Amino acid sequence: MAQGLQVAMICWSLVLIGVLSVVMRLFKEMWLKPARIRSVLRKQGIGGPPPSFLVGNMTEMQKIQSTTNIIHEPSDPKDFQHNWVPSIFPYLQRWEQKYGPVYRYSTGSKQHMYVSDPKLLKELKLQNYMDLGVPKYLSKPLLPLIGNSIIRANGQDFAYQKKLIAPEFFLNKVKGMMDMMEESAVALLKTWERRLLKSEGGVLEIIVDKELKTLSADIISRACFGSTYSQGNQIFSKIALLQEALSNPILLFGVINFGFFPTENDRKIWTLRKEVDALLLKLVRDRQKQSQVGGICKKDLLQMLLESAASTSSDMHQNTHKTDQFILDNCRSIYFAGSETTALTASWTLMLLALHPKWQECIRAEISEVCGDDYQLHHCLKDTDKLNKLKTLTMVIQESLRFYAPSVLVAREALEKVRLGDLDVPKGVHIWTFIPTLHRDPENWGPDADEFKPERFANGVSEACKYPQAYMPFGYGSRLCIGQNFSMVQLKIVLSLILSKFSFALSPNYQHSPVYKMLLLPKHGIKLLVRRVQ
User: Is 108 helix (H, G, I), strand (E, B) or coil?
Assistant: First the structure.
């Protein structure tokens, strides 16, 4: 009896020790560690809203978001270009006004440092991929879309994937894709011309963002995967649905769903992921069969991924990936990032040009001067030297990216202790930058910061503003978008062809309502009136 009681007491003691151990660990992770990080930042003069136990500043964030007065449809359409900005993450902007360009805040146990100070942004751009990476809590929920691709990878894994993929988007490779870009754009323009012939009064209302997504998906499919949009249509449409299902702002708070059972949205995400992977895997298997019979004439991104994945298993990085999953993750990411962002930039650019028709005329005059007639135009757009002479078009694209960069936020996690100027940033801090306010800061861009003035870029980004490092439509530092060259060449070719043949005005049915769903999207579409240029 006594022995049994003694055993029971030992068991209960072990259970108690285990429970206390878990409680202490949770207390350390949820309070002591965050408190230490806040203390380090506070001692360096970095203020911020006081956090609450366990939830941090999430309650205040949600309250500010819910009480923000959102105005999307003012009476004068020329005034609506920028007043949507306060509706997207209004707490970031309100705290910046209260605490300055550098402040701290918390979401649960996660500690964030907001940075919009140009001097610190310059320092951030100098950090390497081993010190700054993608926040794990942000990228983990996006696994169904981006997997363990280059978008999510950190450290040596990121370096390996960048070394593998980035060369495929170097300018010398992009030159070989220009024919495809032009052919895809011409096909779209012909459909518009046929629809215009049947339209009343030679005017057609087009939802340009929808049409340009189709075009961009066709280009990325053909250039990177050797398939046409007819083959990639299912993949692209399902990825769009997957993006919609994953566009939950709560992810930015770092909140985890602790439910024991998956939600309906969870099941939808898993189903879409399986369907996308099945379609991509068929694309991969078809290509492998082609390769075996010697049917590949030209190497594209898919072929390069296949060859790399089949390379010697002694490569220590390649061992971290299953061959198929490595290929599928990167295919999914490139379909999403490569087509969506460029299509959005082209769409927002046409919306701004519809508001400012004189710039449409300037671009047409430049195209005529540089390229000549229609026949010469098609040859001109396959020549990078001629494309580089389209200065007015380049300025318009840069100004459009200033106002409507597809990426709204740049988020980094300090993977190691980081030195930024005079500041020591502890390991684990998440560094945030809100692009729309940076791109509209009068101190940097001047008193006309809210005006559409492409001429500010006449001498390049370095002369367009006081602090060029605060212009970051493609991100910054070692994680600068690898598809920047591909995107800019595609934008110039597509917009040159479109503007040489069509003029644009805002449709009376257009509702200006930019929303954040992983990227800056037009909630109601971009509806423009299209006419044939005489």
Answer: coil
